[in-house]
């Protein structure tokens, strides 16, 4: 059982460290999608209402353990201040003088955001003692820890894992909701259980496929990874994405699916083009007739219909990875068809994966028509793989 905020007792006047996922996309210093900040609000509001002094840890980008103003959380502090009805201060450092002074000055119901935790190389260190040392310094700032950065719970990092062992700790509302929704598909899914897998590379998702072959009833494959499967079946795939070194593994998966009675579904047609370009001329071809000088950039209309039918025949569906290059409107049809089938049918549907969630929004679907859209790409994938996540295990009793 995950410990909840209530297990921390009365928080009035207490200093509470919170790990949030504020790793938002920026363009010219402006936040282009504040979804992750919004997802963090329920926990922050709950803590403020309880009268806590809230100290947030978060990262932005990959500053590689060095202080770098390009990765400052300043734009996040500003946006958070606009979204939440509480004063928000940004510390000048993570565990230094500014963090100590500002956290001591904090009043009940106020928020202090520490500077990017990844400015400190110890945050992501593989050396346990380095991470622990930083965790001890962070622990001095607070009385309790709340883990709410679902996007990072698969990481054994100071602000996610080590700090939870130094202070009384609990899961925040976002982490709780994510784990509750995802465990409905990973633990005892209502059957038939279908999984739709796509995205660019099969090698990113081999672990998931291996695990799903003994869990799922239906496995729908699309995206760039489909071509390694089609090739493994003996088809020519032209200039499509192909991972030659995975062909043997994929052949084995195809055999295992047959042995275990998993309905492994591959595209029957594809939308091909002569090059990887927004304006490339799309042509629909059968999956076994991809011309040598073309590449498959989406699943074709017959496949879209087939995948929609399979989705509608299921009770539980997990989806990770776009069916095609949805960023180009001519090759977004497959991804749109899967999203449409999920949002209009009565299945319990969970969407994981950064690009898949972005596709759902970009293609204009109402997020409320899905049962759950995960905020964590890597973390949700590792749960589908059946892995134990360090940042979750440490919050369990
Ligand atoms: P997620 O973030 O949802 O896990 P991935 O990161 O694995 O998804 O993959 C997303 C990317 O895969 C998208 O940028 C999309 O353009 C690309 N992609 C999908 N289908 C193809 C294809 N047929 N050829 C090349 N790239 C593809
Ligand atoms: Mg991605």
Description of the structure:
By secondary structure, the chain is an alpha/beta fold. The protein contains 13 helices and 17 strands. The strands form four sheets. The protein has a six-stranded parallel sheet, sandwiched between helices. A hairpin with a 2-residue loop joins strand 2 and strand 3. Helix 9 packs parallel to helix 10. The longest helix is centred in the N-terminal third of the chain and has 15 residues, at 35-49. The chain is elongated and about 70 Å long. The N and C termini lie close together (6 Å). It binds adenosine-5'-diphosphate and magnesium ion. Residues 353-355, 377 line the site of magnesium ion (MG).
In short:
Helices cover 34% and strands 16% of the residues. The chain is an alpha/beta fold and 397 residues long.
Q: Give start-end ranges of low-pLDDT stretches.
A: none
Structural class: alpha/beta
H-E order:
EEEHEHEHEHEEHEHEHHEEEEHEHEHEHH
User: Roughly how many Å apart are the termini?
Assistant: 6 Å
- Helix fraction, binned, reads 25-40%
How big a fraction of the residues is strand? Answer: 15-25%
- How many helical elements? 13
Task: Choose one word for the global shape.
Answer: elongated
Q: Largest beta sheet, briefly?
A: 6 strands, parallel
- Oligomeric grouping of the chains: single chain
Please count the beta strands (DSSP E, at least 2 residues each). 17
Mean pLDDT: 96
Bound molecules: adenosine-5'-diphosphate, magnesium ion
> How much is the radius of gyration in Å?
23 Å
Strands of the widest sheet, in order across it, are 5-6-4-1-7-8
């Amino acid at each position: 059982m995950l410990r909840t905020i209530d297990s921390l007792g009365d928080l009035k006047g207490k200093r509470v460290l919170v790990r949030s996922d504020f790793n938002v996309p920026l363009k010219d210093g402006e936040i282009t999608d504040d979804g992750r900040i919004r997802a963090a609000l329920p926990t922050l509001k709950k803590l403020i209402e309880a009268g806590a002094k809230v100290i947030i840890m978060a990262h932005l980008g990959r500053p590689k353990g060095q202080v770098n103003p390009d990765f400052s959380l300043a734009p996040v502090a500003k946006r958070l201040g606009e979204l939440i009805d509480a004063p928000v201060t940004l510390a000048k450092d993570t565990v230094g003088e500014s963090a100590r002074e500002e956290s001591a000055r904090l009043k009940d119901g106020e928020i202090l955001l520490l500077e990017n935790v990844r400015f400190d190389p110890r945050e992501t260190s593989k050396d346990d003692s380095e991470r622990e040392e930083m965790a001890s310094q962070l622990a001095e700032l607070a009385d309790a820890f709340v883990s709410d950065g679902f996007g990072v719970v698969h990481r054994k990092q100071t602000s996610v894992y080590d700090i939870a062992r130094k202070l009384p700790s609990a899961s925040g509302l976002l982490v709780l909701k994510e784990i509750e929704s995802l465990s409905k598909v990973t633990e005892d899914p209502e059957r038939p259980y279908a999984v739709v897998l796509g995205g660019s590379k099969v090698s990113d998702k081999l672990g998931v496929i291996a695990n799903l072959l003994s869990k799922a009833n239906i496995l729908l494959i699309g995206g760039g990874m489909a071509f390694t499967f089609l090739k493994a079946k003996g088809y020519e795939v032209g200039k499509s994405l192909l991972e030659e070194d995975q062909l043997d593994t994929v052949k084995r998966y195809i055999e295992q699916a047959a042995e275990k009675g998993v309905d492994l579904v591959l595209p029957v047609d594809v939308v091909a083009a002569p090059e990887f370009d927004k304006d490339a001329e799309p042509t629909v071809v059968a999956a076994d007739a991809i011309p040598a000088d073309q590449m498959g950039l989406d699943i074709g209309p017959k496949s879209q219909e087939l995948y929609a039918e399979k989705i509608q025949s299921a009770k539980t569906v997990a989806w990770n990875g776009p069916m095609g290059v949805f960023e180009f409107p001519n090759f977004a049809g497959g991804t749109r068809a899967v999203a449409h089938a999920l949002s209009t049918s009565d299945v319990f549907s969970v969407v994981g994966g950064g690009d898949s969630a972005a596709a759902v929004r970009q293609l204009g679907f109402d997020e409320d028509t899905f049962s759950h859209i995960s905020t964590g790409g890597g973390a949700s994938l590792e749960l589908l793989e059946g892995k134990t996540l360090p940042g979750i295990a440490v919050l369990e009793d």
